[in-house]
Amino acid sequence: MAPFVHPTAIVEIGVEIGDDSSIWDNVHVRRNTKIGKRCIVGEKTHISYDVRIGDLVKINAFVYICTAVTIENGVMISAGSIFTNDRYPRAANPELTSTHGSAPDENTLPTLVREGATIGAGCVIGCGLTIGRFAMVGMGSVVTRPVADFHLVVGNPARTIGYVCRCGERLSSDETVCACARCRRRYEIRGGEVIEAPAAELAVT
User: Of 73, 63, 77, which is closest to residue 28 (Cα–Cα)?
Assistant: First the structure.
């Protein structure tokens, strides 16, 4: 099925939107951005140019995604979250004689959100970092450093307080080998690294 674009949305030239995706009211998607299949982009979200978004991504309302952000498949970005791409931004040159343009330059740093990750409501995501596979960033967090796969981080600055399963359930961090209480997937936790067991080794309920 062709993508749905709300009549009030602004979709600039060169944007690619995959089948079954929905772009809701007052969204602005800037030029040359690519959005995959079966995505949802909530109202009043702004997606800047050259952003790359995979399949099955859910972006809630009032999200700001800037240039140099890549979002892999199955990511959840909750309402009011903000991405950044410059650690030392200035509006003008040091002499205050001209404003900086919005085109990427040597100060523009990329951010990668790996597959399955969740970013909670009202988060601020720093630049030059990666949020790992199936990681979870708690609401209102400020992410200033990379987040490892399956880690649960909260706070300002965000710090690891535990680990989560693919399904989102929190894992017990008291055991080296643990099974998710909800879906019974198994994991090994070694020195902060979370390793998935093969699907054939799922725990028996």
Answer: 63
Q: Domain-by-domain residue ranges, the chain?
A: 4-164, 166-205
Percent of the chain whose pLDDT exceeds 70: 97
3 state SS of 159? strand
| Beta carbons of 170 and 154 less than 8 angstroms apart | no
State pLDDT tens for residues 1-39.
999 999 999 999 999 999 999 999 999 999 999 999 999
Tens digit of pLDDT for each residue in 92-127? 999 999 998 888 888 899 999 999 999 999 999 999
Alpha-carbon Rg for the chain, nearest whole angstrom, is 19
Buried b (16+ CB within 10 A) or exposed e, 149-163: bbbbbbeeebeeeeb
Structure tokens at 38: 């079966």
Q: Is the pTM of this model over 0.85?
A: yes
Q: Which two structure tokens, joined as six digits, stand for 201?
A: 């080794």
Q: How far is the C-alpha of 133 from the C-alpha of 75, rounded, in Å?
A: 9
Inform me whether the pLDDT recorded for 174 exceeds 60: yes
CATH number corresponding to 4-164: 2.160.10.10
Q: Residue 140 gets which letter from DSSP?
A: T
Strands across the sheet containing 170-171: 4-5, 22-23, 40-41, 58-59, 76-77, 118-119, 136-137, 151-154, 159-164, 170-171
Count of Cβ atoms closer than 10 Å to residue 50 Cβ = 16
